[in-house]
Design goal:
The complex is a heterodimer of chains A (393) and B (293). Helix content of chain A is 44%, strand content 21%. Chain A has 393 residues and is α/β, with parallel strands linked by helices. The chains are: A alpha/beta (393), B mainly alpha (293). Chains A and B meet through helix 2, strand 8, helix 7, helix 8 and helix 9 of A and helix 1, strand 2, helix 9 and helix 11 of B. Chain A: This is Extracellular ligand-binding receptor.
Chain lengths: 393, 293
């Protein structure tokens, strides 16, 4: 046998030995990696939100030593482009082609609804880390669908109470004409009109159109006591800047669901100063839990976390609770679901439980913009539960 | 709607329409004269907006402080960009069919988006309008109009007139128009058509970049903004008639009016009104309002 053959054989043996070694941990566990399908917007007006969610999600897994329920995590990423028309295709690809065990997504409500529909049909576990579409934990609810964020109804309802208490009577609302906007306005209207106020005009424009100027002129002409709005991401930046540029900020107070000023303050600058918004998170909660989270997020990403990062983080926490209960075997659907339903999630926003329809029962905070932060002003609504209308669970 | 509101809405429509014209004019020039469908045209607008955000700190501290310096440096860079792009890519496309042009320029969109993502990231940014143009003009009780929007309208109007003048009243404009009608004939008359095309292309790019720069304070700066504007610009070009500057101006103003008043009077349909307008006009005039050449 020539020496070159010998080297070849010894190399082959070494390679085999190495590959056997690397396969060992998997063999010992008997479980392959858990495939997590991240379907989030990585381009477009919601790109920054998708990235924050993914960061938060990865942070919790990193804190658990890279494993949940004893299983390593493998990610399959899809950019959903906040485009509902591509959502069903994308989610089907994740489930059928990539065989993901869990779906995480998304930001846009229309996309999340398409995901919920497919998840319901196929029984794949879905955790929604942002989209607040009421329907996801309403008529479309299912035992395998969870939400780590909020329902659109929640911040709107809480703000309706706040604005009514401030004594405003005549309010104009403005939003994008899509599920999230409509539902936020509906929640606001429900509590605001219960509190004695009246929504005199409901303005809207198609998503993701950001030419607000014509509608701002309408607001000035209607002369309301206040304006309530729902915008997020790039649209929120533009709206706040345009509202100030049109000279309305000085004359008509603006109130919004928290997405208006979350993750957008750098870009809005002075135009956002003092704005009041409602959300299930604020930048200065100053609780030990939140401080620890913020420190570890800042260390990992050299960025300050926002509500989207928290929601991504909590989606991973919920998944971890479920997986721990079934020791990584996500096939045990009933035990997995029961564990999450019974859990008290130790969120940076404050602990929350899930409602019957799997939506967080949580405090909604009133926040005021100060500098580059959404500072806690007060609790607008304590342990507010979405009514879960239409859900039969 | 009272009179003041109506007048302000007209100003809104005018401002939107004029800005749209500025972006669309380059598209229709390049399409009408060189016969190139340039899907990457929206990217130039995006590049302009990102210049206002990223170039300003280098040139003048902020966009607000170094307004004119940023615009000047941005324009020079835009002309260079246009010149190089024409030399490297577009000069090979004149003889190709439209499908190849679409594929190639679509590829450029992806390249520009990736470069943008690499260089400045995927965040949304706000840009402050210069202080001397901040503030609002009072128009009756409670009603005001932002000065900066008036400035945009004014600048766009001046540029539109200048473009029209160059195109119809100067020797350069004459050569360009002749070049679009018969490339070989113009060349045999001793005019350097290659250079001429390069100049027209660079000008088209520069105008779109400029539009992006001055629009940045009112549109904010965000990934994918070029694609949104591209679609509506194609509507402008199609309604106006391919290659017609006059048509593009009229079409852009029409769209400004339909979009603005549609939003206010028919909010449910405002997303489709512009396309309904396009369909109606094409029914009556299949080649658009003005057919060039």
């Amino acid at each position: 046998m020539s020496s070159s053959h010998k080297t070849l054989i010894s190399r082959a043996v070494a390679t085999l030995a190495l590959s056997a070694l690397s396969a060992l941990p998997t063999l010992a566990q008997g479980l392959p990696k858990l495939k997590v399908g991240l379907m989030l917007p990585y381009t477009g007006t919601y790109a920054a939100l998708g990235n924050a969610i993914e960061n938060g999600f990865r942070l919790h897994i990193a804190e658990q030593g890279g494993k949940l329920g004893g299983r390593e995590i493998e990610f399959v990423k899809v950019d959903d482009e906040s485009d509902p028309s591509k959502a069903t295709d994308n989610v089907n690809k994740l489930i059928k082609r990539d065989n993901v065990d869990v779906l995480i997504g998304s930001v846009h409500s229309g996309v999340a609804m398409a995901m919920a529909k497919v998840a319901k049909d196929t029984g794949t576990v879905l955790i929604v880390p942002n989209a607040g579409a009421d329907a996801v934990t309403g008529p479309m609810c299912a035992s395998n669908i969870f939400r780590s964020s909020f329902s659109n109804w929640q911040p709107g309802y809480a703000m309706g109470e706040v604005v009514a208490k401030k004594g405003h009577k005549k309010v104009v609302t403005i939003t994008w004409k899509y599920a999230a906007g409509d539902e936020s306005i509906r929640g606001f209207k429900e509590s605001f009109e219960k509190g004695g106020g009246k929504v005199v005009k409901e303005l809207n424009l198609p998503f993701p159109n950001v030419e607000f100027q014509a509608l701002l002129t309408e607001i000035a002409a209607a002369k309301p006591d206040a304006v309530y709005t729902f915008f997020a991401g790039g649209g929120a930046v533009k709206f706040v800047k345009d509202y100030a540029a049109a000279g309305l900020k000085k004359t008509i107070p603006l109130y919004g669901a928290g997405f208006l000023t979350d993750g957008t303050l750098d870009a809005q600058g002075a135009d956002a100063a003092d704005l009041l918004t409602t959300l299930h998170y604020a930048d200065s909660l100053n609780t030990p839990r939140d401080n620890a989270f913020r420190l570890s997020y800042a260390k990992a990403y050299k960025l300050q976390p926002d509500v989207y990062a928290v929601q991504g983080y909590d989606a991973a926490q919920m998944l971890a609770v479920g997986l721990a209960a079934v020791k990584g075997d996500i096939g045990k659907k009933a035990e997995f679901t029961t564990a999450i339903e019974k859990a008290k999630i130790d969120s940076p926003r404050g602990p929350f439980t899930l409602s019957r329809s799997h939506n967080p029962v949580q405090d909604i905070y009133l926040r005021q913009v100060g500098g580059k932060e959404n500072k806690l002003a007060s609790i607008a609504s304590k342990a507010l539960a979405d009514p879960g209308r239409g859900c039969r669970l | 709607m009272d009179l003041t509101t109506f007048l302000i809405q007209c100003l809104n429509a005018l401002q939107y329409g004029l800005l749209l014209f500025l972006v669309a004019s380059g598209l229709t020039l390049i399409f009408g004269i060189m016969g190139v469908i340039n899907l990457a045209h929206g990217s130039f607008y995006m590049i302009g907006a990102y210049m206002a955000y990223a170039l300003a700190p280098i040139v003048g501290g902020t966009f607000s402080g170094g307004f004119f310096a940023t615009l000047a440096v941005g324009l020079v860079l835009a002309v260079l960009l246009g010149y190089v792009l024409e030399w490297a890519f577009f000069s090979f496309l004149y003889e190709r069919d439209h499908l190849q042009q679409v594929l190639m320029t679509y590829g450029l969109i992806l390249v520009f988006e990736e470069l943008r993502s690499l260089l400045v990231g995927d965040d949304v940014h706000g840009v402050q309008a210069p202080d001397f143009l901040a503030g609002t003009l009072p128009l009756g009780e409670l009603m005001t109009y932002p000065v900066y929007r008036l400035f945009i309208s004014g600048v766009c109007l001046v540029l539109a007139l200048a473009m029209y003048f160059v195109f119809t009243r100067t020797r350069l404009g004459m050569m360009i128009r002749a070049g679009s009608a018969n490339r070989e004939m113009v060349q045999s008359l001793g005019i350097d058509i290659k250079f001429l095309y390069r100049v027209v292309f660079a000008a088209g790019v520069a105008i779109a970049v400029f539009a992006g720069m001055i629009a940045a304070p009112v549109s904010s700066v965000y990934p994918g903004m070029g694609n949104t504007v591209l679609i509506i610009c194609f509507v402008v070009v199609v309604i106006g008639g391919i290659g017609s500057i006059r048509g593009a101006l009229l079409a852009a103003l029409l769209i400004g009016v339909v979009d603005t008043f549609g939003k206010v009077l028919l909010p449910q349909a405002s997303g489709v009104l512009v396309y309904v307008l396009m369909a109606l006009i094409l029914l009556v005039k299949p080649d658009g309002l003005f057919k060039a050449g």
